[in-house]
C-alpha cells in the first residue's frame, strides 16, 4: 500500500452553515424526489413522490434517445403517515433489462420533466463516490456540487441521509435537494441513527420513512425479513461485491443479519470478485471523542466474518469527521485485514466532531484524520489495484487531502504493511 497525504497547515476551517430546505415547485401530479438504485445485474429501480396520491401513475417510460421512449414498466406506490403527517404517493418502478454503461432517458408517471441516467459499467474500472451523514445544509449543497462536478458511476452512503429527525417534511426537502444527482446515478444507502423515528401507537416501524422512500435491493440479496436495513449487490459485472450492513438491526451471532452475512460472504468467489467492500454506520474503529465505542458490540460480533472473507475496505459514518486507518484485525495492524475509513462528513446540521484523542488505544493505527466536511472516491482500476481519495470541502473547491493506493486482498501476494504516516488536524 502506498500512502500519500497532503499537509495543508494553512487551511482555515470555515464556520458552520445553516439548514436549508428545498421547496416543492412541481404540480401535484408531477414527479419529485426522483432517485434510482441498482436491482440485480441489469435493472434499475426508479423511485419518486407525487403529492397526488390516487391518480398519478406508477409507470416509467424510457429509451436511449431524448423524448423517444421505446420501453415502459409499471410498478406500485405506497403512502405512510407519521402523526398528523401524510406522505405523498411514493412510487417504485423497476426498469430493464438495461445495457451497462449506457445513457437512458426516462419520464416518471407520464408527467413532468424528462430525466437521464447512466447505468454502471459491466467491467472495471468503476468509480464509487462515498459520502456519509449528508443532511441538508449549505455545506451539503457544496459537497453535492463537488460530487457532481466530477463523474462517477455509483454513490455509496453509509447512513444518516436527511436528518429529518421526526420532521417528515424534511424527508421531502432532502429528496428534492439530492434529485439532480440521485436521478442520474444509482445511490445505494444504508440506515443511520437519524433514520430512526420514535415509534407511535399505530405502527411499529422505527424506519417508516426510510423504508418507504429509499427502497434498496434487499430481497434480491436474500435479506427479506429486515427490509432495507441490510443487503448486498454486485458492481462492474461482479468484479466488486458491496455489503451494506445495518448498525441498527440485530447483529449478534444467532441474529438474522449475522446468519445472512455468513451466507452472503460465503457466496462470494474471490477469483471472480477481486474486490469486496462493506459499509455500516457506527464505526468499529474511531479515535474521535464523538461516539466512542458505539460500534464495539457489532465489531465483536462480525469483524471475524469480514476478516476471513478478506474484505478490502470498510466505510462508516456517524462521526462527523474523516479518519482513515491502516489495515486492521482485532485492534492490531494486519496486512490481511480491511482498511477502515470513517466518512461521516457530508455536511450535516450538527456540525463537525473536532476533537480526536491523542492517546487513544487505536491512535497508532490511525493514518490520517481531520475534522472537515468532504467526500471520498474509490476508483477500482483493475483486478488488483484501486485508489482512494478524500476530497476536503474547501468551499468552492474539492481539495484532495488524502490519497492511498490499495491492492486487492484477493491477489496472491497482498502488499506488505507500510509504516503509518499519521496526519492529525484538530
Describe the structure.
Residues 337-403 form the Purple acid phosphatase C-terminal domain. GO terms for molecular function: acid phosphatase activity; metal ion binding. By secondary structure, this protein is of the alpha+beta class. Helices cover 13% and strands 32% of the residues. The chain is built from five helices and 26 strands. The strands form five sheets. Strands 15, 16, 17, 18, 19, 20, 21, 22 and 26 form a nine-stranded mixed beta sheet that branches. Helix 4 (256-266) runs parallel beside helix 5 (296-308).
List keywords for this structure.
426 residues; alpha+beta; nine-stranded mixed β-sheet; 26 strands; 13% helix; 32% strand; acid phosphatase activity; PAPs_N; hydrolase
Percent in helix: 10-25%
Give the CA-CA distance, first to last residue: 26 Å
- What overall geometry do the principal axes of the alpha carbons give? globular
* Topology, number of strands: 26
Which structural class should the secondary elements be placed in?
alpha+beta
Number of helices, counting only DSSP H or I runs of 4 residues or more: 5
What are the segments in which pLDDT stays under 50 over at least 5 consecutive residues?
A: 1-9, 414-426
Oligomer: single chain
Mean pLDDT across the residues is 91
Strand content: 25-35%
Rg on CA atoms, Å:
21 Å
Family: Belongs to the metallophosphoesterase superfamily. Purple acid phosphatase family.
Catalytic activity: a phosphate monoester + H2O = an alcohol + phosphate
Pfam families: Metallophos, Metallophos_C, Pur_ac_phosph_N
Organism: Lolium multiflorum (Italian ryegrass)
Amino acid at each position: 500500500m502506498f500512502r500519500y497525504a497532503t499537509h495543508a497547515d494553512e487551511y482555515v476551517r470555515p464556520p458552520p452553515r445553516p439548514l436549508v430546505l428545498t421547496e416543492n415547485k412541481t404540480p401535484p401530479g408531477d414527479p419529485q424526489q426522483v432517485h434510482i438504485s441498482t436491482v440485480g445485474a441489469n435493472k434499475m429501480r426508479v423511485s419518486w413522490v407525487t403529492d397526488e396520491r390516487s391518480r398519478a401513475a406508477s409507470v416509467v417510460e424510457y429509451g436511449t434517445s431524448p423524448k423517444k421512449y421505446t420501453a415502459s414498466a409499471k410498478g406500485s406506490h405506497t403512502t405512510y403517515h407519521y402523526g398528523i403527517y401524510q406522505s405523498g404517493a411514493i412510487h417504485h418502478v423497476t426498469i430493464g433489462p438495461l445495457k451497462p454503461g449506457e445513457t437512458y432517458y426516462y419520464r416518471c408517471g407520464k408527467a413532468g420533466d424528462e430525466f437521464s441516467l447512466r447505468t454502471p459499467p459491466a467491467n472495471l474500472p468503476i468509480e464509487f463516490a462515498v459520502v456519509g451523514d449528508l443532511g441538508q445544509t449549505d455545506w451539503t449543497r457544496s459537497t453535492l456540487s463537488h460530487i457532481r462536478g466530477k463523474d462517477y458511476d455509483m454513490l455509496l452512503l453509509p447512513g444518516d441521509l436527511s436528518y429529518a429527525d421526526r420532521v417528515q417534511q424534511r424527508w421531502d426537502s432532502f429528496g428534492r435537494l439530492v434529485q439532480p444527482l440521485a436521478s442520474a446515478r444509482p445511490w445505494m444507502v444504508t440506515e443511520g441513527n437519524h433514520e430512526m423515528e420514535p415509534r407511535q401507537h399505530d405502527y411499529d416501524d422505527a424506519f417508516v420513512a426510510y423504508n418507504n422512500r429509499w427502497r434498496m435491493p434487499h430481497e434480491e440479496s436474500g435479506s427479506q425479513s429486515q427490509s432495507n436495513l441490510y443487503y448486498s449487490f454486485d458492481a462492474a459485472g461482479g468484479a466488486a461485491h458491496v455489503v451494506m450492513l445495518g448498525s441498527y438491526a440485530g447483529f449478534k451471532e444467532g441474529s438474522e443479519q449475522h446468519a445472512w452475512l455468513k451466507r452472503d460472504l460465503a457466496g462470494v468467489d474471490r477469483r471472480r470478485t477481486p474486490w469486496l467492500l462493506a459499509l455500516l454506520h457506527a464505526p468499529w474503529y474511531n479515535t474521535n471523542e464523538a461516539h466512542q465505542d458505539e460500534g464495539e458490540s457489532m465489531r465483536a460480533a462480525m469483524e471475524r466474518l469480514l476478516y476471513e472473507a478478506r474484505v478490502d475496505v470498510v466505510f462508516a459514518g456517524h462521526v462527523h469527521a474523516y479518519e482513515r486507518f491502516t489495515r486492521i484485525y482485532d485492534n492490531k495492524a494486519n496486512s490481511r485485514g480491511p482498511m477502515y475509513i470513517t466518512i461521516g462528513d457530508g455536511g450535516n446540521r450538527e456540525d463537525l466532531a473536532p476533537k480526536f484523542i491523542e492517546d487513544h488505544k487505536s491512535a497508532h493505527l490511525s493514518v490520517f484524520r481531520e475534522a472537515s466536511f468532504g467526500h471520498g472516491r474509490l476508483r477500482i482500476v483493475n483486478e488488483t489495484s484501486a485508489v482512494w481519495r478524500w476530497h476536503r470541502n474547501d468551499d468552492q473547491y474539492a481539495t484532495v487531502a488524502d490519497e492511498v493506493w490499495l491492492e486487492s486482498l484477493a491477489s496472491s501476494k497482498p502488499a506488505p504493511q507500510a509504516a503509518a504516516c499519521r496526519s492529525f488536524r484538530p
